[in-house]
Each structure stands twice: as structure tokens, then as C-alpha cells.
Amino acid sequence: MKTILKYILSLLALVSVAVPAYAQEPLYYTDFARNGLDWYTVETEHFLVHFHSDETGKGSRTARVVARIAEDVYGPITDLYDLRPDTKVSFVLKDFEDYSNGAAYFFDNVIEIWAPALNTPFRGDHNWLRNVITHEFTHMIQVQKTMKASRHLPFMYLQYLDYEEVSRPDVLYGFPNVLASYPLPVLNNPAWLAEGTAQFQREWMDYDRWDSHRDMLLRTQILEGSELSLNDMGGFYSHTSLMRESVYNHGFAFSQYLADRFGEDGLKDLSAELGNWPNWNFKQAAKDAFGIRGEELYLDWMNELRTHYEDHAPEASDGFSYVEEDGFNNFYARVSPDGTKLAYLSNKGGDFSRTGIWVQDLTDGSKAMLAIPQVELGNGLSFTCSQGHKIVSSASGPIDWMADGRLVYSKTKDTSDGRLILDIYAMNLDTKEKEQLTENARAFSPAVSADGTRLAFVTHDDGSTNLNVLNLEDKITVALTQFADGSQVIEPVWTPDDEWIYFGLSRGHGRDIYRIRSEGGEPEAVLNEKWDERTPTFDSNGDLVFASDRSGIFNLYRSNANGDVALTAEQGGAFMAEYAPDGTVYFSRYEGSGYKIVSSSGLEEASPQAYQAPSILSKSVQTSTNDAFRSALNNRDDSGIRAFTPAEMDSVDGYSPVFTSMSFLPVLRLDKYVSRKRSRTDVRIKDRTRAETLWRNTKLGFYTATREVLGGLSFFGGVLIGPGSGEANSFGDFLSPSSLLDLERDVFIQVDYARGLPFINKRWAPQFSAQLFNVRRNVENGLSIEEFPCTSCYPDTTLADLAYNLWEVDLMAKSKIARWLMLDAGYRYSPYRVTTKRFFSKELNQGIPPSSSRYYIGRAFHSRLIFESYFSHRDMNVVPHGLRAELSVERETGRLLNRFDLEDGVLSPVYEESTVRRVSFSAKGGMKLGGWPGKGIHGVNFRMRASTILGAEKDDFYNDYVGGLTGARGYPFYALGGNETLWLQAGYTFPIFPRIKKQFLFTYIDKMYLKLYGDAAWAWSGSWPGMTNARKDVGAEVRFGLGSYYLLPTALFISATYGLDAFDFQLDEGFVTPDGATSVRYGESWQWHLGILFDFDQL
Fold it and tell me: How far apart are the C-alpha atoms of 309 and 218, rounded to whole Å?
């Protein structure tokens, strides 16, 4: 019986790696329950537009505009790529958070759009909905054109598992020491091409264009020699936000160049060639499409650009001092009323766009970051679009000073129902006390009046933004504009006499400057030219100062009754001027490494050189729109579309669940738990051949998934079978239901319901899941029986085959309390069964029929509290900076098969009942360190796990284990087991080759790091063995950060660990090793582990 129980431990361990592991999912994978939204659907010929609205129609205008745009662009985009979606495409419109983006799920025919217009310092303004709808739909079509197979078969998984050598005779299989799961996608579309074609759209289409911001980024990078290589453009890899934006930027320019050189059909031809199986990267696909290899095209393009920029771009200016040159997002310098402090936004010290407020003391030059409460924890403000580009923010938009010296800013905060909403706050810099000035107002861009009594700010609603004024004394807010046509009010500023409020206004390409009386009235155009005019402010004389690209490059200009005068002549660009009382001027200056804040004692008249971007980067829109249809599309005016009235909302269809098509992911797994030896104990039994062993360890199957497009319900499952694990004598016999059911299998099904409960409209509303697992393993000659063939014979051993069948059902509810904290609880039912197959008894001289026994029945209630907070940086996959901790409590009542009693001539199982109360705690974390010379970073990390069973000692069936791949790697998994366990690890990680940047076929080799670590582990039952009885090891792990197929992160690690302590493990009574020993020795040996996964620390 002990043999059977020990075998079960091997299978239970196998379950943890044989099916996808959900326990280690990052918390940001789980969103809040959002059950307080009423959803509706507008259906058109080719699309389903899903949107949320109230009974008054609020939120419906965006849906009506999207429906019109989608049908407008359907024909032009599908015609170019000669591909039409096989189902209606679902648009899911989200306007419940202050976040702007779009995401195309090209395997699902689903596009998500966040309604607020994108306002990024790296691109110019364009009609948001016209642009983003066309952009994401182009993604959908172009990416599907590059697929080598149906979108219903998005990946094929190749998996390989190998196992530790088994020293103990009571253990069936060792724990995995090689774990590889590598997906082969049906596409390999470089990120630059996906994003480039989505911005290019059509040659004649004018919803996006190569604007002055885009040219500014590319121009300065090329002139400074920091342009992206072709390899760097392929994906987002270990890129900063500026580099990721450069992938978009370079991609747009390169796609436009290819269209200019080969015609826009060349983009279709290139996409089609990427969809051919022999082509696994752009270089060869370009050769097949254009007759020129991709690297040659890249060099031709880059040389042409470099020549143009060197010949036509102005020289870099000087005559200023740097205030902040660290980071690439340094904006909105604001001088305090007393002239002693300068506040500004900066991502100083960070790799991504998330900005904080920095305050510099102008009297001594010291700087300090202003800690804003409720934005430090978690990844809650990190969002990722369909191609992986993060746009993040802590404090966002302009800031300002109040008359009493408090700083006013806007930031996002979670509401009680889990929505990230922008509001405006004022903070005292000395006491750090804050006052919330708006409440769930979706408010940003604060500007304080000169007399300090009023606050202007911008609010968002249903795709439009408007200007408001708050009286700081009586807290009454007045809306000054009522735009409902998609207009965008941007960055208001008061005139020195508080009579007017100036602001940027965007209704299409670029911005103009308007003004409105602070007491109300109609907006008036101040600067409404063909150029882009933005970031208005006023100098000490009360003259308007603004940024404009009228010379082809953004510079600062002063405007008064005598006309407009240029104040700067930049090579990159100048924006966001601020005038101090002493006459010093601060502004944001763009260079190849990003936005820097500089100062000047005064800006005099300048003469910026006229400049024009390279012609190969501009569409020939004017000459290609002779067709009336195309011209009509470019000039389409959506401003007249209004929201549904309350009466019209009654006839709008409520949302009915729409599910994505089923996806099937074929899986080929080599699962090497079966060795060539057919028996460990009987040398007379012939070993398998290598071919037989390979076939025996091969598993074939698939994963499958579908989801409801709003994310409320999802299904994920998988089936793998071992075709070589059966005993069929013919193909027909193999296909019989009984033979198929006798094959080894790994089956799992998971159903998730994320909508919460209708009567709990809170972010922590519980979400539910149901999981079913089934694992069957056939063990050849797994049971040995001592028999006496005759009364005078020596004992002989009869071998019988066994089959283990493990089932597990887990019903669970989880509550995401905050973005960094989640609680889950559930009930688990685990019936396990063992079957003895038919065998011939020499002692009885007859065949013994098959028999089956349920050897364990477990019922468990479990609960877990998870905390997770990580700071994002470009190398966080190899050097994490943050902490994840889990506290688990479990109460399991189990009936464990103890023996069989003979009752009335029938064997009757006798079970031993026990209740196990287990408490476990695990944590992993790290901290990046400063001071590393050269590129890359270094850091320290730790991992730990502790588990205890409360009360009396339990059967070792319930043991926890802390060796092997998931613990102290210097010892095999089953070497360190007990009712009580403790494992501690400390490590140090540093770069070997931090920026390799090489492309080989479909693999991008990003970086190589080395992790040095040491473990200490204790495993015992009964009394604490003492600190001196720790099992210690030291090891090293090489970590390769890779990218696969331009799309997927890949983590390859190889570790070698040496167990420092030798000890003997005493076997249970009745077990001996093949050489007759009753103990097994562990330690003082090397253990090797290898993995190919998506991440390094996901186990």
C-alpha cells in the first residue's frame, strides 16, 4: 500500500507542471469586477459595436461615430490586403476610465477602444476616432494577412519535460528538472511593420500623417546616431518607452518608404510573403516580395534619411542651461509664486513614461521627488496595448501653484467600483497634506487664476473634452464650453488679468489656440492656421508665448500687437515655456534622448531655418484623392453625430453575449517520465528500444479557448493523450472507446466568470471559476507480488500493471480588493483511484481479473491572500524590483486507503480518515541596485516558502517538499519533504551581455544575465531540527532574455547547483534500493535544471 501512496506523490507533483499554472499569474491579469455598466450593441453590415451607456444615452455618441467610421474604412483596408474577416468584427468601446488606447485582438476578431483621445508628447494630434478605428482595423487585417494558417489555430506548442533521476524505490517519477514550453505562432510579423502599416493605412487616406512630432523623433535620433537597428525595430523587447515609441515611429517611416518605392501594394505583398511557411523573418520575406533582402532595404532607407537630415536640418542651438536632463519625459515647468521653487513632471530614474512631480529649490539647486499617495503600489497604472506598448502615468498633464504655495496636479485614483478616474488635488509641500478639489470628475490640466481664487481645468465625457472653472472659495464649478462633437480642449492658461482663458483646441490634424472669457461666452480663435500651435502661456509683459511648427520644426514664438516673433531656433523642438519673476525662462527642449527642461536668462528674437521633412515620408494625399469617394472619406465630418436621446435608447438593442470563435492550439509533448527499463526489480524483462521509449513518452493533443468579448465569461481547456501508452493490437482496436479511455491523458477545463454579482457594485465583487483536472498514468509492472508457485518452491515475484487516475475539481471565488491585493477562497474535491490490470497468478494458477480501488478522497476548503507590487523597468524580467507574497490557509478532510479486509470472501477497503490544517507563506522579491558600470543593471533578490501542518503529525502522504526546481535546487525534489518545511534563498543577478540585440531566424537574442544564489532548506515532521540541520546549497543560473517571432517573450535558463550537505534518507520499512540498501544518500553532488518558458520566475 505504501508503494501506491508514494507513487501518488509523483503524480500530484506532475499535475503542477502538466497543465497551465494559474497560481503564479500576476495580479494585473485579473481586472476588477465591473458589473455596474449597462451594455448595448449597434450592429452594422460588417461590425458589432458594443458600448455602455445610461438611460439618457450618455456614452452613445462614440458608438454611433465608431459604427460609421468602421463601415467607411472596411472596404479600403480589406481591398488593399485582399482579405476580409470571416465573422463580424466586434468593437468594444470603453469610456469608464481615463485612459486612451486601442487594442486589436487579431485572433479573435475583437477590437477594444478607449474613448478618451490620445494625448502623447511623441505624436501630433489627429482625429482620434477616425485614426484609432482605422489603425486598429488595419492591424486586424494586415496581421491576419501574415498568418501562415487559420486564426483559429494561433499557436502550436512544443513541450519537453525531463525528470530527476530517481534514487528512491518508493517514488515512481522524479520531479521535472527540464521544463520547456515553446509556442510556434502562425505569424511572425515584426512590430515595426504591424505598427507602421496601421499608421500608414492607405496611401490616399488622411486620418494619420507624418507630423512634426514624428519627424522630430526620427530626425534627432538619426543626427545623434541613436536610431534603432532593424533588429531593434522587430519587437518591444527590453525597450524603454521612448524606444518603444521609436518602433512605432521608425515603423511608420519605413512602411511609408516601402510604399513610396514599391507602391502600397508592396505592403500587401510583403505581408503575404511573411505568411509563407519558409519565411520566418522580414529579411527573407522582403527578398521574396521585392527581390531585395530586408537589411539592404533598411540601409537604403536609413542612408536616404541621414543624407536629407544632414543636408537640411538646422544646427543644434545653445545658450541655455539644463535644469533636468535625466529621463526623457520632462514637462510643464512651473515656478512658485514667490519664485523660490520650480516644479515639473519627470520620469527621471525610470525606463517608462510614468512621470512624477519633482520640485527644485531655486535658492540652492536641490531637487526632491514629491511622493504622491496612492500611486506607488502595484502595476495598476500600467496598461499594454495589442503590440505591447505601455503608456503610463502617475501625475499627469500640466501642474500649477496656488497662491498659498500649494501645488495643484491631476492624477488617477481608483473609485469604489474600480475605475481609474482623473481628479485634481492640491498638496502642501511641507506637511504633505492634500486636498481633493474634484470628485470623480474626470478632471485634469489644472490652471490657477492670477488672483488665486479660481481654478480652470478640463473634463472628459463621451469622446469630447470641455473647459470648466472651479471657484476655490464656494467650490462651485461652471462649465465654460459644451463641446459634444469630439473636440478636444487642451492645457488651459489664464491671462495675467484673469479676463480670458486661453487653451489649445484640436478637431483634426494639429492644434489651434482659442480663448474664452473667464465668466463665460463663446470660444474665439486666436491662432487658427495650417500649422500646429500649442502650449500657450504669457511672458512678464503679458504677451502670448506659444509653440508652433510653422518653420517645419517646433519653436517658441511671442505674439502681440506687432505680430509674431520667433524666440528659439531648435534642431529638435521647443515647448511649454514658463516665465519666472526674475525673467528666467524655462521650457521643454526635445533632443534625440527625449524631452529635457532647460533655462535661459531671456529669449530674444531668433531666426529658425525653414525646414521640410523628407518627401519619402509624406503621403501624396493631394494628388491621390481625385476619386470622389476617397475625397469624401478624407473630408468626412462626424461632428454632427449626436448621442441617442432617451427615447431612442429604448429601441437600441441591449447587449447579448458574443463569444469569440473557438481557438485550437495543437500540442506535441515529449514527457520523459518513462525510462527504457521496463522493471526496476526484474532484470529478466527486456528494456525498451529508443524508438519504443520515444513513442511511449510522446503525448498529442490540443488546448482550446473562447471568451465572451466583454470578458465576463471565458473557457480554457486542454486534452493530451499518450498514444503509445495503450495495448491496442490494431488501429481499429486503438480507436475503440475502451482503448482510448485506457490511454494516459492530461485533461483540464477552466471556466471563469468575471462579472461579479449584480447586487454588489463594488470593485471587490467576487469573481468565480471552476477547474477540473484529470491525469491518468499507466505503470508497466508497477505492482510486485511475492508468490509461492508450489509448497516446496522458493518465492517468486509476479508483476502487474497499474493505472493511476487522479481527478480534481476546484470551485473558487476571488475578490480583487485593490490593484495590489487579492483574496481568493474555494472548495476542492479530489478523488484518486488506482486500478490493477489483469495478471496471471502463478500461485493460484489462474488469471486475476482487473480490480479498482479509490485510494484517496479529499475535500478541502482553502483561502489565499496575495500581495503584489513591482516597479516596472526594462530589465524587470531578469532583475525584478518589488515583492509578491502569498498567505494560504487550507483545511482538508481526507480518507486515505490504509488496507483491505476480507469480509465474506470479498476484499473491502479500509480508509484512514484525517483532517489536515495547513498554513503556508511564500514570498519572492528583489531590488535593483545602482552603480553598475556600463549598460544593464544588477540587483539582489530573495525567495522563501514556509509550510506547517497544525496539530499532530500526519502521514507523509501530506508532506510538503522544498527541493528540486521549485525549491533548493541542490537536492532532488523528494529529498526534502516533511509535514513542516522552510526554504530560504538569497541571490545576486548581474549582466554578462546586457544588450546583445541579435536576430537569428525567428529569435531575437536580447540579453544574458547571471544569477548567483544560495539556499537553505529544512523539512521535518515532529520537533524542529534546529538551525544547524539546514540543507544548504550554492548555485548559478544563466538567464537568456529572448524574443520569439517578433511577438512572444521567451526566457531560457540553465542552472547548476551544488548541495553542500550530505545526508542519508531512511526509506520506509519494506523498501530497499536495487543494491539492497535501506537508505538513499543525497548531497555533495551537482543538480542541473533547464527551462524555456515565458518568464524566469513563474514557477
Answer: 10
